[in-house]
Amino acid sequence: MDLHISNILNDLKNDDIQAYLLTKFTNIEYISGYKPTSFAFCIINENPIIYASKMDMEIANKTSTIDVREFESFEVMIKELKEEGIKSLAIEPELVFSTYEKLKDDFDITSKTYINTQRMIKTPFEIEKIEKATEIAQKSFMQLDVLNNKNPENVVAFDLVRLMIENGASKESFDTIVTSGANSSLPHATPQDKLLEKPILIDWGAVFKGYCSDNTRTMVYTESQQEIWDIVAEAHDKAIRAIKPGLKCCEIDGVARDIITEYGYGDNFIHSTGHSLGLDIHETPGFSIKDETIIRDGMVITVEPGIYLEGEFGVRLEDTVAIYKKGLVIGNLPLQID
Amino acid sequence: MDLHISNILNDLKNDDIQAYLLTKFTNIEYISGYKPTSFAFCIINENPIIYASKMDMEIANKTSTIDVREFESFEVMIKELKEEGIKSLAIEPELVFSTYEKLKDDFDITSKTYINTQRMIKTPFEIEKIEKATEIAQKSFMQLDVLNNKNPENVVAFDLVRLMIENGASKESFDTIVTSGANSSLPHATPQDKLLEKPILIDWGAVFKGYCSDNTRTMVYTESQQEIWDIVAEAHDKAIRAIKPGLKCCEIDGVARDIITEYGYGDNFIHSTGHSLGLDIHETPGFSIKDETIIRDGMVITVEPGIYLEGEFGVRLEDTVAIYKKGLVIGNLPLQID
C-alpha cells in the first residue's frame, strides 16, 4: 500500500470516517499519478478507486496507480459507494458546493484537510523537482538579459516563458508577471503592450514534472527606488535566516513585517510574506499573520516581502526556501541584478 | 442600475432571497468589470458591494463599477451583512465548501445559477470580442504553417501562442493542444517534446479583452485517417446546420452522435458535442446528451465532434457558433487544411 494512502487511512480511522473523496486535480495526481483533464472522483478507503470521465479513461488507465472506473452518473457512483457500506465521507475543503449538494443526503459529510496536511511535507523526490524547476526558471531569467531588453512587457513575459520551455519546463507555473513603472505597485499586474519603464518587477516560475517554482526580482534605478529595495531586501534576508523548524509560520511573517513597519511602510506591505508550493503554485501553510502552523522539515515555502507605493512603484523580492534543519534557499540567483 | 444587476435583483425577488454572493473571478468581472487576482466576495442586493483583498484594492478601485471595501475577516464581513439585515443568501454552485462552511450558520443558504443563466445570453459587445478572439486565433494558426513546421509538438504549441499574442491576444484561452500520431486519441493531450507525427491535431484559442475563442483542426494523411475525418466532418457540419433557437441542446448533440454511431464509432465519441464559451472557456449550456436547455438567440456554443481510436489516432473538428436566428459559425477557417 502506497504511503500516502496508508497515511490517509490512518487519518480516517482516527476520525472514524469511512472514506475520503478527492476531486482537486493535483490531489488526485499526488495520490495516483493520474492528473485529470476533466472531472474525476477519487475515493480513498481500503479499496481506493477513481471514477474518471469517459474522455480520460485512456490516460487514467495509463498513468493511475489506483484502479479506475468510468464515471456514468452521480446516481450510479452513490449507489456503488453505498453498496460498499460507505456511510460517512470526508471531503476536501475545496469541494464545489454543487457536488456537495449531490452527496449530502446519502452520506454523513465532514470537511478534512488530510491531503493538504500530507502535501505540506515534501519528499526528497518532490524537492528535487522543485529545485530543477527553479534552476530552469532562474537560468531562463538570466538568458533573458532583461536590462538590455527593448521589448514591451508582454513580449518580455512571453520570451521568458519560451526560454523556460526551451530549457526543459513543461510550462509557466502561473501567469508570468513582467511589470514596470507605476504598474509595479500592483502585486498581480498583467504585462502590458508597452515598453519597459523603471523600475522593472518580474515574478515568474517554471513547472518541471508537475512541480512549480516561484521567484521575483525588482530592478531599481533611482535613489528613492533603491531605498525601498534595501528595506525589502533586509526583510527578505532576515525572514529567511529566521526560518527554523519548531517556530510558527506567523513568526516568520512577523520578522519581515516588523522590519518593513519599522521603516514606516507597514501599510504598504499588502500581502503575506510567503506561501508553500509544490504541485500547486499556492499551497498551505503560508508565512502569514494568522497561520499558526508549526514549521517542519520538508516544507517548501516562499519568502516574498514587498512594498507598494500606489501611483509610484512597487518592489518585491522572492525566493523559495526548502526547510531542512534550517531554511535553504533554492537556486542561486543574485538578489540584485545588474 | 446596471442591467446585469437588476436582472439578479429580479431573480432574488422572485425567490424571496435577500442577496447573492459571487466569488468566481469571471462572475465578479462580468458584474463589475473588476477581475480579482486574489479572493474576493461580491454581494449583490440593492446596495451591491465587493469585499476585495488588501492586495487587490488598487486595481479594484480602478476597475470596479461596484463599491469596493477591503476584506478584513469573515467575522467582520458576516457582521456587516447581518447589520444590513441580510438573513438569506444565494450562492454560486461553484462556491468552495470551506467558504460555505464559514457562512452556513449565519445565513439561510441556497445555491442558484442566476449568473450562469444570464451569462448564457451574450450581448453584441460580448460576441464581438469572441469574434475578434477567434479572428486572432485563426489568423495565427494560418501563419504557423503547421504542415511545413519541423519543430516538436511543444515548440509548435508555443509558437502558436506567441503568434496569438503578437496578433493582439492577451493570452491563450486554455493550454494549447498540439498532439500527433497515437497521442491524438487523448482528447486533452499534452504537447510532447517530440517531432510532429501524423495525423496532427491542434486545439487552440485566444483571449481578447477577457473573451475566449476555441477551434480544433486535424490534419490527416492516410486513407483510413481520411475516412474517420470525413465522418467527423459530416457530424460537425450537420450538427451546425441543425442548430436553431427553440430546440434543446441535447438534440444537437444527438445529430452529431447519431451520425458517428451510424458509422459504427459511437463508443469512440467520448465527450459532448460542444460547450458554451465567453469569459470562461467552458460555460453552460453545452451540446451534451443530458442538457435540456432550450437554445436561444445570443448563445455562443462550440461544435466539436471527435472519434478516438486508442493506440491509433484521433480526429476532432471544432468551430464556435454564435446563435442568431440560425447558427452562424464564427471565423472563416477552412475545415480541411492543405
Summarize the structure.
Two copies of one chain form a homodimer. Chain A is of the alpha+beta class and 338 residues long.
Give a topology summary.
2 copies of one chain form a homodimer.
Chain A: H1 3-15, E1 19-22, H2 25-32, E2 40-44, E3 49-52, H3 57-63, E4 67-70, H4 74-83, E5 88-91, H5 97-103, E6 108-111, H6 114-120, H7 124-144, H8 153-166, E7 171-172, E8 177-180, E9 200-204, E10 206-208, E11 211-212, E12 215-219, H9 223-242, H10 249-262, E13 274-276, E14 283-287, E15 300-303, E16 306-309, E17 313-316, E18 319-324, E19 326-329
Parallel strand pairs in A: 1-5, 3-4, 5-6
Antiparallel strand pairs in A: 1-2, 2-3, 7-10, 8-9, 9-12, 10-11, 13-14, 15-18, 16-17, 18-19
Keywords for this entry:
globular; 338 residues; Creatine Amidinohydrolase, Chain A, domain 1; 19 strands; alpha+beta
Q: What this model shows, in words?
A:
- The structure is a homodimer of 338-residue chains.
- Chain A has 338 residues and is of the alpha+beta class.
- Chain A has two domains: 3-120, 3-Layer(aba) Sandwich (Creatine Amidinohydrolase, Chain A, domain 1), CATH 3.40.350; 124-329, Creatine Amidinohydrolase (Alpha-Beta Complex), CATH 3.90.230.10.
- Chain A is 36% helix and 22% strand.
- In chain A, a hairpin with a 1-residue loop joins strand 18 (319-324) and strand 19.
- In chain A, helix 7 crosses helix 8 (153-166) and helix 9 (223-242) packs antiparallel against helix 10.
- Chain A is globular, with a radius of gyration of 22 Å.
- The termini of chain A are far apart.
- The interface between A and B is large, with 39 and 39 residues.
